[in-house]
Amino acid sequence: MKRLILALAVLLSSSVFADDINLWKKSTLNKILERGELQVCMEPGYMPFEMKDKKGRIIGYDVDFAKKMAKDMGVKLKLLPTAWDGIIAALVTGKCDIIMSGMTITQQRNLKINFADPYVVVGQTIMMKKELEGKIKSAKDLDKPEYTVVTKLGVTGEVATRKFFKNAKIITFETEADAASEVLNGKADAMVYDQPYNVLFMSDKGKGKLIHLDKPLTYEPLAWAVRKGDPDFLNWLNNFLRQMQEDKVVGFSDELYKKWLVDTDWLKRVQ
After folding, report:
1. Residue 23 falls inside a structural domain
2. DSSP letter for each residue of 217-245
3. Strand partners of residue 222
4. Are residues 117 and 225 in the same domain?
5. pLDDT mean over 103-122
6. Are 183 and 63 within one domain?
7. What is the CATH number of the domain that holds 252?
8. Which of 100, 125, 193, 256 could bond 62 through an S-S bridge, CB–CB 3.0 to 4.6 Å?
């Protein structure tokens, strides 16, 4: 009887071990290590997270994080510029290993993909024409038929815009730059978009020309996205992020925050 129980225990443990091996072989992390390259999908048009400099190179907050991630994995980094409306499909179909592109965690996206822990939290704010200063103090004041509000198509800025503005005219654009230009040129009254982008725009092109209502309308955690059913990769990412955020000796996360979200010296590289 004891021999039978022992045999069953050995058989069970062998089966569990085999299952673990199979899961590891299927893991994105294992494939990255075998390939020797981390493939990252991002849309290089979301300042300061990813954008192109004067020489056409992709730079930004997410890019620096991706470089550090690849270095710690001991592999090369390949950035794959991807249109926003197809970026989730690109991940799901295996065209890249991870999305690192300032993506907000939403319940709808989470049905299709999994997210690592948030690496930064932002919210939607409003930039508007200088002529409206004092007249418009909140989203409620702006929600009237005579006003036109713009945002980028297919992002959480559009979701927030349609939530807060039921009476104002809403126009969406393919890029945040086109939407911002519409307000800057006086063709629209206001723009709803992510706080970091609006802060940087106001420190540059919008300075003295637009007004920023900087109190966030929403709570939006940004996170890296991976395919479902991959606990090994998700575990590695969360531990990597925790180390970067909590290790005061390394101080990597704090350095990036200051470099891209506080200082604006990098603007000279993209103008």
Report:
1. no
2. SS-EEE--EE-SS-HHHHHHHHHHHHHHH
3. 104, 120
4. yes
5. 94
6. no
7. 3.40.190.10
8. 100
